[in-house]
Design brief:
The chain is mainly β. The chain is built from no helices and eleven strands. It is elongated.
């Protein structure tokens, strides 16, 4: 079993910064996909940023140049540095990891979600 623990959300004024963290623990052999999604009230969950095992990253257009996804493989942790925050970034942010367990089984895991609120 794999557990994800998110942290770092909060309330910030427009133009401010926050850093989200998502730490994975449990029976993990490898993590080949780490991503952040967000869901605003009344909207569908959307992919914000992704980093794959080779280090390649990608971002949704609305956050390019403002958000940076990174990882610490030794700690099984993924981060999302969010700068120049805008009110439209307000949402619950979820991390998503695709993991291969010690026994070789694949698994798809979600964090519990962390609220990010950007005031104007």
């Amino acid at each position: 079993q794999v557990q994800l623990v998110e942290s770092g959300g909060g309330l910030v004024q427009a133009g401010g910064s926050l850093r989200l963290s998502c730490a994975a623990s449990g029976s993990i052999s490898s993590i080949n996909y780490m991503a952040w999604y967000r869901q605003a009230p009344g909207k569908q969950r959307e992919l914000v940023a992704v980093i794959i095992s080779g280090g390649t990253t990608d971002y949704t257009d609305s956050v390019k140049g403002r958000f940076t996804i990174s990882r610490d493989s030794a700690k099984n942790t993924v981060y999302l540095q969010m700068n120049s925050l805008k009110p439209e970034d307000t949402a619950v942010y979820y991390c998503n990891l695709r993991v291969r367990s010690d026994r070789g089984y694949p698994g798809n895991y979600w964090g519990q979600g962390t609220q990010v609120t950007v005031s104007s």
